[in-house]
Design goal:
3 strands; 66% helix; 21 helices; three-stranded antiparallel β-sheet; 482 residues; mainly alpha
Length: 482
């Protein structure tokens, strides 16, 4: 296994410094929790400090990292007994049946249980435990979701092949990118997306679409390109230290240094759109909690209503535009930074803007993960506790199967100070890792290290912009809370 370069260790030290720096506040607010930040210094100080940490990290990379280190990713197989135990076909088969059964149960609860949100297990199970929980599960244990994917289990049961060889290469990840944008719209824009009956219909519809895709193109092919959550976890799994590889025709469990698996991702059509959709969606979620957005949202909604649209529809129109504009701005910012990096550094012989963006898109994956953690950490920690209450009465019929219907959410489980540290460390750390990945890729492409460093100034500007804006959205969420 290759050793990490001095610059990478320096970057780790900077992350530690950043975590220490942002651990000052005594009371903080996090996504999904009522409260107001009361910090011993103005919040703007944290913005400046975070930006300085990113800039210092860039300087450390420029001075101490002069040749590519992550183009060849070290991977070491796990002991045979561990690999055989984890990848045992009976164990995986049982896990697949368990996950499929859980999916059927949640769908049944959504379709036939109470229509009152806090009395039906489906909304919490889907939006909190599953959607948010996929991130820590994947970062810690690798691409587990691909192994137990319930739609793949259904497709295999009806004998869908692994690959029919009919998937058009030019499509790349575009099916998943489109579906990710639709999922973000449902989650963040549509006001009644958590309605149990609507969730049941969406699950059934997505099941038909996904199984049809697997039958038409092959199970493995659709998992790689069309099943939006499998594509999501595959990209996140590139940050994990756990990876399964095929060695001499046999699947083997193994380990590698975390994060650097991103460097092995191959450019694909639609990959930039998919990752940008992740970042843009979470950014819009943060923006929608700010006073800036709320003031303009009200004014824009009133204008749409004046055109004859009802209140419900007007709110959807304005929020939809906000989401799409945020994704478009993120796309333009990244494509522009990539184009400037190529022109300044002479990367790849004047590649097209799209090709340069594909070359560097892997550097956005830590940022997508960091944003997800920062914005949804408290929502997961606190609201997932409600699963204990709902498990006793999943359909909202008044049952008390396990005697836990009186269970309450403990909002003191994680201190405000710890929440603040997690949020800021996730934002700052993600951008430092993004810089490191982009820097290493530039060293592979540039004619010499000085041109590689010069090419990364646009990326540095982008990372500083994203860091400060991300923290500003979080801080606005604090000050707008009651």
């Amino acid at each position: 296994m290759s050793r990490l370069p001095t610059a990478a260790r320096t970057g780790t030290a900077f992350l530690g410094m950043a975590a220490f720096t942002v651990s000052w506040p005594g009371v903080a607010f996090a996504h999904g929790v009522q409260g107001r930040a009361e910090t011993p210094v103005p919040l703007e100080v944290f913005f400046y400090t975070a930006a300085i940490v990113v800039v210092i990290s860039f300087a450390g990379l420029a001075l101490g990292w002069s040749r590519p280190r992550w183009d060849t990713v070290g991977w070491r197989p796990a002991p045979a007994w561990l690999s055989d135990a984890v990848l045992n076909r009976w164990l995986i088969g049982a896990a697949r049946v368990l996950v499929l059964s859980a999916a059927v149960f949640v769908t049944a609860a959504a379709g036939f249980g109470s229509t009152i949100l806090n009395r039906n297990i489906a909304p919490v199970a889907i939006f909190v435990v599953w959607w948010i929980g996929l991130v820590p599960l994947t970062l810690l244990f690798g691409n587990v979701w691909r192994e137990v994917n319930p739609w793949a289990t259904l497709a295999r049961w009806i004998r869908a092949p692994a690959d029919r060889g009919t998937y058009p290469p030019r499509w790349g990840l575009w099916p998943a990118a489109v579906l990710m944008t639709v999922w973000a719209w449902m989650e963040l824009v549509y006001p009644t997306a958590a309605s149990p009956r609507l969730l049941a219909g969406l699950i059934c519809g997505y099941t038909l679409l996904t199984v049809a895709g697997m039958v038409r193109y092959g199970v493995d092919v659709w998992l790689d390109h069309g099943e939006v959550f499998a594509v999501f976890t595959r990209l996140l799994a590139s940050l994990s230290a756990v990876e399964v590889r095929t060695v001499d025709g046999t699947r083997r469990l193994g380990f590698r240094p975390p994060v650097i698996g991103c460097a092995r991702l191959l450019p694909q059509a639609g990959q930039v759109a998919f990752v940008i959709a992740l970042i843009g969606a979470v950014t819009f979620d943060g923006l929608s909690g700010t006073s800036l957005w709320k003031a303009r949202d009200v004014a824009a909604t009133e204008r749409v209503i004046s055109l004859g649209v009802d209140d419900f529809g007007a709110g959807i129109v304005v929020a939809s535009i906000g989401l799409l504009v945020m994704i478009a701005l993120a796309t333009v910012a990244f494509e522009s930074a990539s184009w400037a990096a190529d022109r300044v550094g002479g990367l790849g012989g004047q590649m097209s803007v799209g090709r340069v963006a594909q070359t560097f898109v892997h550097s956005l994956i830590p940022i997508a993960a960091g944003y997800h953690i920062a914005h949804y950490f408290t929502l997961f920690v606190f609201q997932s506790q409600d699963l204990l209450r709902l498990a006793s009465d999943p359909f909202g019929t008044g049952a008390d199967l396990f005697g836990t219907t009186g269970s309450k959410i403990d909002f003191n489980l994680v201190s405000p100070n710890a929440i603040w540290v997690v949020q800021l460390a996730a934002i700052v750390g993600a951008h430092v890792l993004g810089l490191a990945l982009a820097h290493d890729r530039a060293l592979q492409l540039a004619p010499h290290s000085r041109r590689a460093v010069a090419s990364q100034y646009p990326m540095l500007a982008l990372m500083v912009l994203l860091t400060v804006s991300g923290l500003w959205f979080l801080s606005e969420g604090m000050t707008q809370a009651v």
